[in-house]
Design goal:
This protein is mainly alpha-helical. Helices cover 69% and strands 3% of the residues. α1 packs across α3. The two termini are 21 Å apart. The C terminus is likely disordered.
Length: 183
């Protein structure tokens, strides 16, 4: 049985809360609500937690946003595709090249999430004007904004050594020792 990492679950919950609160700072573009903080959080999840925790965070944030009336059904493909692809690419490239996480978030959200939003808008939201590429541009605007914020934050953290330290803290007590040798 795989050991549960309580630190990663807690951080996933914290990131979910940040994404939900951050969605109050959204702006409309062509019928979708652009919430750049969600994309910032997706990148942070990819780097700190991996694809599955990131996917869980994106799903939970989308669900809570919809329940609170802060988002639309388009939040699900818009956030989940970017979070998953960012985490998968980050893991695939040995967690050393952060630019794959950034690119995965943008490509996953804008193109994949944008295209997957078409059937949701047409079938469940009654948007008969939607086409396959209707949501690609608005999702691109949202994800680029959030990803730029993430790049600035992550690269500053990396230069200061905080990125490495925070990642070591997530692994501490999970079979790996931290710098002080205690959990």
């Amino acid at each position: 049985m795989k050991k549960i990492n309580l630190k990663k679950i807690t951080l996933t919950a914290l990131f979910t809360a940040i994404a939900v609160v951050g969605s109050m700072f959204s702006f409309p573009v062509f019928g979708s609500k652009c919430a750049p903080i969600q994309h910032l959080v997706n990148v942070l999840c990819a780097i700190f937690l991996g694809p599955w925790y990131g996917l869980a965070q994106a799903f939970l944030a989308s669900l809570i946003r919809n329940l609170l009336g802060l988002g639309t059904l388009l939040a699900f493909p818009g956030s989940m595709c970017g979070a998953l692809l960012a985490g998968l690419l980050f893991n695939l490239f040995k967690k050393k090249i952060r630019w794959f996480a950034y690119g995965g978030e943008v490509f996953g959200t804008a193109l994949i999430g944008g295209m997957l939003s078409f059937p949701i808008a047409a079938l469940f939201m009654g948007n008969q004007a939607a086409t396959l590429f209707t949501f690609v541009v608005p999702f691109l605007i949202s994800t680029v904004g959030g990803t730029i914020i993430a790049i600035v934050m992550v690269e500053i953290m990396a230069k200061a050594g905080a990125l490495k330290w925070l990642k070591s803290q997530l692994e501490a007590g999970n079979g790996k020792e931290n710098r002080n040798g205690n959990d």
